[in-house]
């Protein structure tokens, strides 16, 4: 069995920055405010520049006749904002944090003096987005990295948002969805109505309407969750909008490595089941590395995470014939057996050996064990176990390039692949289980171009493909037995 879901989407967003908020589907934020003099009067014609502290990428704006300036399409991160006008001291604001889908309000006051004089202020920007009524919560990099996550799945942090809760009852198409995926319900909506966006492109599994896996916490910059009153541009789903942004390289080379181990021999057993462990063995490892290709212009970032997990095999049971039944002796049954040809009853419920198929008896001997009932079981019960290992590997690569202060672009490749091996225990056909591989490949290209100070074009091209392959181990061919 093979299931392939394919999505190729092109989204062209043209934003009139002076008239409306930045598009909620973009991966950027903005800075806006009013420049006034020491007497409170608005100041037109002031030059305002925002510089990304990690990459030195800059964007310029100028205040209008009302003293308002608007900087749109800013990559998330920390900025230094400088306002200048001849005859006034230069105002320099540092540590201005821009988050995904949010406009930071930063009002500036200029004092009379020489432009060579600089007044520096740190961290004075408002963290409340006053440009839109959308109910939105941003989970920033600090919380993603520092809050405990079981399995290092950052989407668990969505449950910190008011009105969002996990949905454990919604069926996700019987295993066709990537393992470990946990849908959430927002404001009472169905779990499969949440829309997931990664770097401006779709990150949904369009087969089951569930989320694709998200990159590991060390590869995510931040994500926002919009729960109500979001823009009409979101016509696909009625639930929450999850908009995530991957990390990018900076002017400094930086890398990290990590390794986590969970082993049942190191864990305390459950209080209510003393002496019984879950057999869990989980190893998770990987790292990130990024930096400049060309300083102040081209940057790269890469990430890898591997996960190998195994735990106590799943216990199963079935009813199988006893050794006497395999020889034709069904005298232990109270129901009368009859000859299927003549309709006459078999004396003492015993089938003559001449009527037994040698091929069927051979297959029974080779692939169906005799019962092994425990206390209280049906005498025909066969108990057996099936292992449940899981391997998961994630790869992410991203390259950013700044053409000039008005034009920049980046490309990102994100691949996640999980697999469960097929299983068949020698001598027990009942243990046969499918193997599966799930692979998600998402490629995004993002181009931002400032046509003029009040007109910005953001083009996002995304390729999203999901593969789901099933396979199994087959027993030997018995066709020669007749």
Secondary structure blueprint with pairings:
Blueprint: E1 2-15, E2 28-37, E3 47-52, E4 58-62, E5 68-75, E6 77-84, E7 90-98, E8 103-105, E9 108-110, E10 118-122, E11 135-139, H1 141-146, E12 164-166, E13 184-186, E14 195-198, E15 201-202, E16 204-205, E17 210-211, E18 220-228, E19 241-246, E20 254-263, E21 281-294, E22 298-310, E23 314-319, H2 323-326, H3 358-367, E24 381-386, E25 390-404, E26 407-420, E27 435-452, E28 455-471
Parallel strand pairs: 2-8, 2-9, 7-10, 14-19
Antiparallel strand pairs: 1-28, 2-5, 3-4, 3-6, 6-7, 11-18, 12-13, 14-15, 16-17, 18-19, 20-21, 21-22, 22-25, 23-24, 25-26, 26-27, 27-28
Describe the model.
The structure is a single chain. This protein has 482 residues and is mostly beta strands. It folds into three domains: 25-122, Carboxypeptidase-like, regulatory domain (Immunoglobulin-like), CATH 2.60.40.1120; 135-314 and 387-471, TonB-dependent receptor, plug domain (Ferric Hydroxamate Uptake Protein, Chain A, domain 1, Beta Complex); 321-367, no CATH class. The protein contains three helices and 28 strands. The chain has helices at residues 141-146, 323-326, 358-367; strands at residues 2-15, 28-37, 47-52, 58-62, 68-75, 77-84, 90-98, 103-105, 108-110, 118-122, 135-139, 164-166, 184-186, 195-198, 201-202, 204-205, 210-211, 220-228, 241-246, 254-263, 281-294, 298-310, 314-319, 381-386, 390-404, 407-420, 435-452, 455-471. The strands form seven sheets. Strands 1-28-27-26-25-22-21-20 form an eight-stranded antiparallel beta sheet, with no helix packed on it. A five-stranded mixed beta sheet has the order 4-3-6-7-10, with no helix packed on it. The longest helix has 10 residues, at 358-367. It is elongated and about 115 Å long. Mean pLDDT is 85; it is low at 1-24.
């Amino acid at each position: 069995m093979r299931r392939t879901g394919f999505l190729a989407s092109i989204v062209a967003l043209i934003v009139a920055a002076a008239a409306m908020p930045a598009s909620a589907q973009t991966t950027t934020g903005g800075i806006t405010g009013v420049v006034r003099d020491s007497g409170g009067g608005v100041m037109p014609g002031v030059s305002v520049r925002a510089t990304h502290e990690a990459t030195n990428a800059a964007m310029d704006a100028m205040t209008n006749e009302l003293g308002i300036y608007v900087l749109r399409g800013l990559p998330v991160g920390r900025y230094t904002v400088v306002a200048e006008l001849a005859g006034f001291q230069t105002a320099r604001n540092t540590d201005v944090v821009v988050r995904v889908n949010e406009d930071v309000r930063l009002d500036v006051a200029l004092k009379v003096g020489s432009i060579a004089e600089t007044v520096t202020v740190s961290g004075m920007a408002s963290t409340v987005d006053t440009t839109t009524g959308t109910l939105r919560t941003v989970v920033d990099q600090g919380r993603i990295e520092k809050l405990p996550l079981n399995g290092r799945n950052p989407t668990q942090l969505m449950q910190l948002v008011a009105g969002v809760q996990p949905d454990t009852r919604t069926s996700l198409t019987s295993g066709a969805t990537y393992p470990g995926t946990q849908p959430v319900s927002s404001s009472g909506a169905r779990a499969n109505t949440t829309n997931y966006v990664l770097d401006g492109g779709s990150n949904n599994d369009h087969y089951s309407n569930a989320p694709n896996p998200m990159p590991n916490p060390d590869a995510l910059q931040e994500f926002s969750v919009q729960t109500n009153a979001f823009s009409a541009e979101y016509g696909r789903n009625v639930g929450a909008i999850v908009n995530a942004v991957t990390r990018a390289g900076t002017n400094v080379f930086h890398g990290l490595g990590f390794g986590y181990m969970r082993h049942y021999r190191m864990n305390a057993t459950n209080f209510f089941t003393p002496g019984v462990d879950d057999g869990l063995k989980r190893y998770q490892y990987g790292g990130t590395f990024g930096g400049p290709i060309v300083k102040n212009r081209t940057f790269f970032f890469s990430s890898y995470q591997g996960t190998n997990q195994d735990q106590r095999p799943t216990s199963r049971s079935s009813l199988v014939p006893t050794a006497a039944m395999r020889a034709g002796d069904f005298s232990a049954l109270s129901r009368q057996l009859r000859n299927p040809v003549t309709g006459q009853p078999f004396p003492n419920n015993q089938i003559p050996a001449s009527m037994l198929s040698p091929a069927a008896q051979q297959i029974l001997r080779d692939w169906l064990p005799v019962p092994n009932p425990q206390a209280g079981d049906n005498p025909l019960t066969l108990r057996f176990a099936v292992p449940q290992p899981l391997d998961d590997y994630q790869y992410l690569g991203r390259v950013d390039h700044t053409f000039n202060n008005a034009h920049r672009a980046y490309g990102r490749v994100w691949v996640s692949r999980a697999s469960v091996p097929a299983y068949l225990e020698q001598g027990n056909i009942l243990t046969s289980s499918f193997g599966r591989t799930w692979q998600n490949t998402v490629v995004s290209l993002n181009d931002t171009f400032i046509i003029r100070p009040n007109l910005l074009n953001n083009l996002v091209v995304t390729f999203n493909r999901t593969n789901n392959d099933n396979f199994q181990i087959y027993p030997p061919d018995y066709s020669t037995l007749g």
